[in-house]
C-alpha cells in the first residue's frame, strides 16, 4: 500500500476515539432506561454495542498506527492501548450476551456500568497523552494542586541555597532543573522534538535525531551547549526564539558541567565557578516591608468614611489590609481630628501627617497604631520630646522628622528600637548638630552641597 | 438659586432663538436613526462589568477618574520623575568609556560595523570618532563618568546604569514616542498616563501627571509623548510652564474675583447636578468633579510652582534662578511636585542632538555646554530627594531616545565642520535611581567601540516592564481594553531587568 495511508489513518485517531465513547454511552443509557423485563430497547442496545465495538476496533487500530508513526514511547501509551483493546473486547462480549438471550442477561446493569468505567478510564489516559498529565490539574487553585501532590517546581527553575551549594549534585540538582524549566516542554518522553528527550540523564545520553548531544569535557562539540549559543535568529538555536531564553548564567552552568566531564557524579563545587555566577539563583528570603500579621481589612464603607473626612486613604496593595493614610489635602488636621482615624487603627501602616497642625501630643495617639511602618511628621511643630513613645510600635521602619524642631538628644530614646531602620531629620536642629554619636538606625541628616567647581562657569 | 435660574433662563432663550423648524426635522431624521444604532454600538454607556451604569452603583472612579486605586502589589515607588534629554545625548562622551575607540580615531570605520546597517545621516564609509571626554571611575561602585558631568560623578552610588539599551527607531519623533509610549506610532498612552490611570493621584488639588519642558523647544514628537492615547484624556500629562503662569488660563481673568468664580462654578454645578438627577449619566458627575478640582487647583498649583520661597542653600544646590525657564528650575519643581503628592513628573530638556553641523551641535563644545546645564540640577535633585527621604519611594529615570554612533557624522558624504555623532539605535546608556532600584549597579556591556551591546542588552520594553514593576504593576497584566483587545504598555514584549532591582 502507498506509504502515507497508515500514518494518515493514524492521525484520525483523535477523531475516531469519540465514536465508541458516544455510541457505547448511548447504549448504556438505554440499558438504564429499560425496566428489568422490558425489551422495547433491546434491538437498539444490541446495535449500540455492536457499533461501539466496531468503532472501538477502528480506534485501536488507528491508535496503534499513530503510536508507530509519531514517535510515541511505548511506556507512555501502553495502558491506554491495553485498556482501549479491553474496552473493545468488552463491548463485543456484551453484544454477544445480548444476541444469545431474548431478554437482558443477569447483572447486565452492573456489567454495562463496568464498561462505562473502562471507557472513561481509557479516554482519560488518552487525554493525558495529548494534553499532558496535568491538563486537568493546571486550572485548579494552587492550594488544591499542592493537596493533590502536584507542585510547580518546574516552572520555578533553578533555585540554589546560599550556603552549601558546593555540595550539590551538579547534574541532578543544577543542570536537570534548568532543562526541566526550559527544554522539557518539547523534549520529554511524550513529546520528543528532534527525537530528543531531556527529562533524565539516561535519555540525554541517548541523544536525538543527529545522535549524541553530549561530549564530556568538550562543550563546543556538544549540541546540548552549542545550540544554546547560536544567534537567536538561527533556526537551530535552542530554545526556539519565541520561548523563554536561557539566562547567560544558566548557559554558563551547563557549559561548565560539560567541560567537567558531563557526568552525574560531579558536584557543583568541583567546577571552577564563582559565587557571583550563582547570584541570580540564590534563594531570596523576601522580608515583607509591611507587618507579617493578618488583620481584617477595613470595609468599603469605612474606607469611604475616611476619604469623606478629607484623608487620602488607600490600600498599599490590592489584596492587603494595610492602609496608607495621608493628610496631603487635610492641612488643618490636628489632635482633635484623631477620632476620625480610630476606625483604622489596626490597618494604618503608612501615615503621613506632614504639614498638619499636630504637636507633640499626637504621639500619644500614634503609639496606639500597632502596625505602623512608615511615619511622616515633616513640617510640623513636633519638638521631639515624646518620640520615645514610638519605642512601643514594633513595626516602625521609617520615621520622617524633616523640618521639625527635633534634636539629636531627643532621638536617643529610639536607640535600639526593634525595627526602626531609617530616620530623616533634614532641616531640623538635629541635622546641624556636630556629633559623633552613633545610632542603631540610619540617620539621614542631609545638608548636601555640591561645592562650586571652576568648570561651572566655563562656556565653550 | 437666583444665579441658577438666571443662567437657565438665559440658556433657554438662547436655545429657542437658534432653534428652527429645520433643526426639528433634522433631529427627527438623525436621532431616530441613532436610536436604532445605539444597541449596536457597545462601549458607550456600558460599564466595566457589562451593565449599564445607572447612576446608583457608581464607583469612586466614575465620579472622579483620578481617584486613587491600590497598586496590584506594593511597589517600592509611589511616584516617578522622568528626565528625558530630547535629541539623544552621546553615551560615548558621558558614561560608556571606550579606550579602544580612541585608538581608531580618524580611521575609516571597519566594514563589519556598516554591513546591513542604516543610519539617519551617515553615508558611505565614515571616520571613527574617539571619545572627546576624559573618563574616571567614581564612588564606591567605580562607575565610569566623564569630566562632562563633574557633579554627577559624586552621586553615582545612588544610581543604576543601563549601559546596553537599544531601540529600533533612529529618528527623533518615532524614537521619543517609542521611549514614552512603547510604540513608535501615534495613539498609545504614555508611561505617565498608564501610571496615573493605574494609581490615580495622591493630591486631589494637583494634576496627577505634570510635564515641564526646557531647552527652548518641546520634543520633536510633539505633545503625544505625554498623551493619553486611547486612555481617557484626563490621564494625559498637564504641561506646566516654569516661567509666567504655570498653567495657562488657570489664573482668574482680571476683574473676575475668586468669589464670583466660585458662584459661577457652583451655579454650573447645580445645573449639572439637576441634569444628572434627570438623566443619570455618570459623566455629568465627573464633570462636576472636574470643575471643583480646577477651582481648587487655582490655589494649589501656583503655590507649588513657585520656587521663590525656597531657601538660598537650595537655590545654590540646584543652581536655580527664579523666573527663568530652565532645566534647573524644573528639577527643583519636580521635587516640590513629588513632595506634594504628584504621581508622575516628566521633564523634557531639548537640545541634545549633536551632529557636529554647528558649534552648538558639537560633541566637544555644544554637548559640554548642555551637560553643564543639567549636571548640577540633576545631581542636586537626587541629593535633595535623598535628604528628604523622598528617594525611598520616588523613581528617577534619565535618558534620551537613542544613542550616538562611534563614527563621525558625515552627512552627504562630507566632513562636518565640527565633531559630531549620528543617531544610533544599537547601544546607549540610561540610568535609574530611587524607589526599589539597586544602588550603584551597572547592567549591560557594549563592544570595544560602544557600537552594540554584547551582554545584558535591555530594550525599551524591558525598561518599561521594570519601571511598572517598581510602581507595583505586573506589566503583562496591566491592560486596557480598546478596539476589542487588551493593550499593554509593553505590547507583547518586555522582561524585568532583575539585576537593577534592589
TrEMBL record, chain A:
Give a yes or no for keyword Transmembrane in this entry: yes
Identify the InterPro entries for this entry. Answer: Cyt_c_Planctomycete-type, LRR_dom_sf
Q: What name does the UniProt record give this protein?
A: Cytochrome C Planctomycete-type domain-containing protein
Q: Does the keyword Nuclease apply?
A: no
Its keywords, alphabetically, are: Membrane, Transmembrane, Transmembrane helix
The Cytochrome C Planctomycete-type domain sits at: 183-242
| Transmembrane spans | 12-33, 45-65, 77-96, 108-127
The scientific name of the source species is Algoriphagus aestuariicola
The record's annotation in PANTHER family points to: CYCLOINULO-OLIGOSACCHARIDE FRUCTANOTRANSFERASE-RELATED (PTHR35889), F-BOX DOMAIN-CONTAINING PROTEIN (PTHR35889:SF3)
What domain of life does the UniProt record list for this protein's source? Bacteria
From TrEMBL, chain B:
Gene3D superfamilies reported in the protein's UniProt record? Alkaline Phosphatase, subunit A
The source's superkingdom equals Bacteria
* Pfam families the UniProt entry points to: DUF1501
> InterPro entries annotated for this entry?
Alkaline_phosphatase_core_sf, DUF1501
**PANTHER family membership:** BLL7424 PROTEIN, DUF1501 DOMAIN-CONTAINING PROTEIN
| Name of the featured protein | DUF1501 domain-containing protein
Organism from which the protein derives:
Algoriphagus aestuariicola
Amino acid at each position: 500500500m502507498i506509504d502515507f495511508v497508515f500514518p494518515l489513518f493514524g492521525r484520525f485517531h483523535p477523531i475516531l476515539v469519540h465514536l465508541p465513547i458516544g455510541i457505547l454511552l448511548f447504549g448504556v443509557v438505554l440499558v438504564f432506561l429499560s425496566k428489568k423485563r422490558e425489551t422495547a430497547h433491546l434491538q437498539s442496545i444490541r446495535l449500540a454495542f455492536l457499533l461501539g465495538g466496531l468503532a472501538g476496533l477502528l480506534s485501536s487500530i488507528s491508535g496503534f498506527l499513530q503510536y508507530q508513526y509519531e514517535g510515541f514511547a511505548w511506556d507512555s501509551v501502553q495502558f491506554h492501548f491495553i485498556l482501549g483493546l479491553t474496552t473493545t473486547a468488552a463491548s463485543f462480549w456484551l453484544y454477544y450476551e445480548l444476541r444469545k438471550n431474548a431478554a437482558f442477561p443477569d447483572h447486565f446493569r452492573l456489567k454495562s456500568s463496568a464498561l462505562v468505567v473502562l471507557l472513561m478510564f481509557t479516554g482519560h489516559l488518552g487525554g493525558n497523552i495529548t494534553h499532558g498529565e496535568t491538563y486537568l490539574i493546571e486550572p485548579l487553585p494552587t492550594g488544591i494542586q499542592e493537596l493533590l501532590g502536584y507542585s510547580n517546581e518546574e516552572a520555578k527553575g533553578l533555585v540554589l541555597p546560599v550556603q552549601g551549594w558546593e555540595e550539590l549534585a551538579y547534574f541532578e540538582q543544577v543542570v536537570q532543573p534548568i532543562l526541566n524549566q526550559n527544554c522539557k516542554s518539547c523534549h520529554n518522553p511524550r513529546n520528543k522534538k528532534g527525537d530528543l528527550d531531556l527529562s533524565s540523564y539516561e535519555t540525554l545520553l541517548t541523544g536525538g535525531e543527529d545522535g549524541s548531544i553530549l561530549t564530556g569535557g568538550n562543550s563546543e562539540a556538544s549540541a546540548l551547549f552549542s545550540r544554546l549559543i547560536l544567534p537567536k535568529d538561527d533556526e537551530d538555536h535552542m530554545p526556539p526564539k519565541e520561548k523563554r531564553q536561557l539566562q547567560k548564567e544558566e548557559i554558563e552552568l551547563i557549559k561548565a558541567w560539560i567541560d567537567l566531564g558531563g557526568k552525574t557524579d560531579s558536584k557543583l563545587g568541583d567546577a571552577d565557578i564563582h559565587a557571583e555566577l550563582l547570584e541570580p539563583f540564590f534563594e531570596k528570603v523576601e522580608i515583607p516591608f509591611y507587618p507579617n500579621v493578618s488583620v481584617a481589612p477595613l470595609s468599603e464603607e469605612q474606607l469611604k468614611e475616611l476619604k469623606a473626612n478629607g484623608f487620602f486613604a488607600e490600600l498599599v496593595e490590592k489584596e492587603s489590609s494595610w492602609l496608607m493614610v495621608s493628610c496631603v489635602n487635610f492641612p488643618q488636621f490636628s489632635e482633635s481630628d484623631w477620632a476620625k482615624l480610630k476606625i483604622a487603627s489596626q490597618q494604618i501602616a503608612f501615615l503621613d501627617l506632614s504639614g498638619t497642625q499636630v504637636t507633640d501630643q499626637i504621639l500619644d495617639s500614634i503609639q496606639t497604631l500597632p502596625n505602623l511602618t512608615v511615619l511622616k511628621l515633616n513640617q510640623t511643630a513636633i519638638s521631639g520630646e515624646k518620640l520615645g513613645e514610638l519605642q512601643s510600635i514594633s513595626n516602625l521602619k521609617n520615621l520622617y522628622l524633616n523640618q521639625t524642631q527635633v534634636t539629636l538628644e531627643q532621638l536617643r530614646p529610639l536607640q535600639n528600637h526593634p525595627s526602626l531602620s531609617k530616620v530623616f531629620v533634614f532641616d531640623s536642629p538635629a541635622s546641624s548638630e556636630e556629633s559623633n554619636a552613633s545610632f542603631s538606625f540610619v540617620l539621614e541628616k542631609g545638608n548636601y552641597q555640591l561645592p562650586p567647581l571652576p568648570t561651572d562657569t566655563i562656556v565653550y | 438659586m437666583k444665579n441658577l435660574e438666571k443662567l437657565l433662563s438665559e440658556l433657554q432663550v438662547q436655545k429657542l432663538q437658534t432653534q428652527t423648524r429645520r433643526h426639528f426635522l433634522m433631529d427627527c431624521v438623525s436621532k431616530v436613526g441613532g436610536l436604532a444604532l445605539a444597541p449596536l454600538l457597545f462601549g458607550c454607556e456600558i460599564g466595566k462589568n457589562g451593565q449599564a451604569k445607572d447612576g446608583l452603583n457608581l464607583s469612586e472612579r466614575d465620579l472622579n477618574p483620578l481617584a486613587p486605586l491600590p497598586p496590584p502589589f506594593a511597589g517600592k515607588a509611589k511616584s516617578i520623575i522622568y528626565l528625558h534629554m530630547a535629541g539623544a545625548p552621546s553615551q560615548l562622551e558621558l558614561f560608556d568609556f571606550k579606550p579602544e575607540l580612541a585608538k581608531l580615531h580618524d580611521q575609516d570605520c571597519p566594514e563589519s560595523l556598516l554591513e546591513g546597517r542604516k543610519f539617519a545621516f551617515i553615508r558611505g564609509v565614515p571616520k571613527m570618532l574617539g571619545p572627546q571626554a576624559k573618563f574616571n571611575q567614581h564612588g564606591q561602585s567605580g562607575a565610569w563618568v566623564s569630566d562632562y558631568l563633574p557633579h554627577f560623578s559624586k552621586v553615582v552610588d545612588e544610581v543604576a546604569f543601563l549601559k546596553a539599551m537599544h531601540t529600533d527607531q533612529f529618528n527623533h519623533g518615532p524614537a521619543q514616542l517609542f521611549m514614552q509610549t512603547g510604540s513608535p506610532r501615534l495613539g498609545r498612552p504614555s508611561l505617565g498616563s498608564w501610571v496615573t490611570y493605574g494609581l490615580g493621584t495622591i493630591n486631589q488639588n494637583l494634576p496627577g501627571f505634570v510635564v515641564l519642558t526646557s531647552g527652548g523647544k518641546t520634543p520633536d514628537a510633539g505633545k503625544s509623548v505625554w498623551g493619553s492615547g486611547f486612555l481617557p484624556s484626563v490621564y494625559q500629562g498637564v504641561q506646566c510652564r516654569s516661567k509666567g503662569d504655570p498653567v495657562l488660563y488657570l489664573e482668574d481673568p482680571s476683574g473676575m474675583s475668586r468669589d464670583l468664580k466660585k458662584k459661577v462654578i457652583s451655579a454650573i454645578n447645580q445645573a449639572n447636578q439637576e441634569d444628572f438627577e434627570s438623566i443619570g449619566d455618570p459623566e455629568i458627575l465627573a464633570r462636576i468633579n472636574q470643575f471643583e478640582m480646577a477651582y481648587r487647583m487655582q490655589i494649589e498649583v501656583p503655590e507649588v510652582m513657585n520656587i521663590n520661597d525656597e531657601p538660598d542653600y537650595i537655590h545654590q544646590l540646584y543652581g536655580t534662578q527664579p523666573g527663568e525657564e530652565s532645566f534647573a528650575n524644573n528639577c527643583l519643581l519636580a521635587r516640590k511636585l513629588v513632595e506634594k503628592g504628584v504621581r508622575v513628573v516628566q521633564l523634557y530638556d531639548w537640545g541634545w542632538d549633536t551632529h557636529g553641523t554647528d558649534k552648538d551641535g558639537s560633541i566637544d563644545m555644544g554637548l559640554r555646554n548642555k551637560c553643564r546645564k543639567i549636571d548640577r540640577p540633576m545631581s542636586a535633585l537626587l541629593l535633595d530627594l535623598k535628604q528628604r527621604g523622598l528617594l525611598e519611594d520616588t523613581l528617577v529615570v534619565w535618558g534620551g531616545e537613542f544613542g550616538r554612533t562611534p563614527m563621525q557624522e558625515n552627512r552627504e558624504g562630507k566632513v562636518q565642520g565640527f565633531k559630531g555623532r549620528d543617531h544610533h539605535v544599537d547601544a546607549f546608556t540610561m540610568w535609574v535611581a530611587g524607589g526599589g532600584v539597586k544602588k550603584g549597579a551597572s547592567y549591560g556591556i557594549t563592544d570595544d567601540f560602544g557600537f552594540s551591546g554584547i551582554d545584558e542588552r535591555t530594550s525599551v520594553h524591558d525598561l518599561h516592564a521594570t519601571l511598572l514593576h517598581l510602581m507595583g504593576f505586573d506589566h503583562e497584566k496591566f491592560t486596557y481594553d480598546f478596539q476589542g483587545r487588551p493593550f499593554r504598555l509593553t505590547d507583547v514584549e518586555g522582561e524585568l531587568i532583575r539585576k537593577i532591582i534592589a
